[in-house]
Design brief:
Layout (H helix, E strand, L loop, with lengths): L1 E7 L3 E8 L4 E2 L4 E4 L6 H14 L6 E5 L3 E2 L2 E2 L12 E2 H9 L3 E5 H12 L8 E7 L3 E7 L2 E3 L8 E2 L2 E2 H5 L1 H6 L4 H19 L3 E5 L19 E3 L6 H12 L1
Parallel strand pairs: 1-5, 5-9, 10-15, 15-16
Antiparallel strand pairs: 1-2, 2-3, 2-4, 6-7, 7-8, 10-11, 11-12, 13-14
The structure holds beta-D-glucopyranose.
The site of beta-D-glucopyranose (BGC) has 17 residues, from α3.
């Protein structure tokens, strides 16, 4: 079975059809820059363009970088504030004429990692953290997702964790890998103390460079890089759509 996965990010909106069983893209993904400002209507038009590009007529899964409850977007840390309270599921369904499932971006990436990546077959409490523009989180208990955990907004030293330890925080503050690794470690220690996960999976762009910051971590919980990297959001969104 195939479903179309679309991943909405702060700078790009990416989509591709996905073979749900293999968790693999069946066609080359299409990336369109996120409109500025990233208002709902403009973003929905891009989602519709991606559907058209693939002449898609089946189920569609769309990720959103904020809280999503029953298809309604409830927060907007790194996108236009107009998303707060928007019925995204209805908006995208109207724009595409197809059934659409909307879920948080980190939750989608986690769903894919648990199915075919670093979390495959792992029981107990597993936490996926994406260190990208913000910090996203996906919490699993025996493979079941607890949606919208938003652990990037935990406070560390009086600041939101994602302002100190996300991938963009490293670039914005010109931090060396070592200094940034120290901040990530402090954050992960805090997470470990609160959740005692049996595994932490680190996703986001930096997961490709995990050798620069993961060795030397003294956090009790085992920490591994994500294996799907860039495509996890697309794959997880498609999996969520196929499940409905
Ligand atoms: C948002 C999360 C999102 C994460 C990664 C955070 O700022 O609050 O919902 O998963 O960024 O995009």
């Amino acid at each position: 079975m195939e479903a179309l996965g679309i991943d909405i990010g702060g700078s790009g909106i990416k989509g591709a059809p996905v073979d749900i069983v293999k968790g693999a893209l069946t066609r080359e993904r299409l990336r369109i820059p996120t409109p500025i400002p990233s208002r709902p209507k403009a973003v929905a038009a891009v989602v519709a363009r991606i559907v058209e590009h693939f002449s898609w007529t089946g189920p569609v899964g769309v990720t959103f970088p904020g809280v999503v409850i029953d298809g309604v977007t409830r927060s907007a840390a790194n996108v236009d504030q107009a998303w707060i309270g928007e019925d995204a599921r209805e908006l995208f369904t109207k724009a595409t004429g197809l059934p659409v499932v909307v879920l948080n971006d980190a939750d989608a990436a986690g769903v894919a990692e648990m199915a075919i990546g670093a979390g495959r077959g792992r029981a107990g409490v597993v936490l996926m953290l994406t260190l990208g523009t913000g910090i996203g989180s996906a919490l699993f208990i025996d493979g079941h997702l607890v949606p919208n955990t938003e652990l990037g907004h935990l406070e560390i030293r009086g600041k939101e964790a994602e302002k100190r330890a996300s991938g963009s925080a490293r670039e914005d503050h010109n931090l060396s890998w070592d200094r940034w690794a120290g901040r990530v470690e402090e954050y992960l220690q805090h997470i470990d103390a609160l959740f005692s996960p049996s595994l932490i999976i680190i996703g986001g762009g930096v997961s490709k460079k995990s050798e620069k910051f993961l060795p030397g971590m003294t956090v009790r919980a085992p920490i591994v890089p994500a294996t799907l990297q860039n495509e996890a959001g697309i794959v997880g969104a498609a999996m969520a759509a196929a499940e409905q």
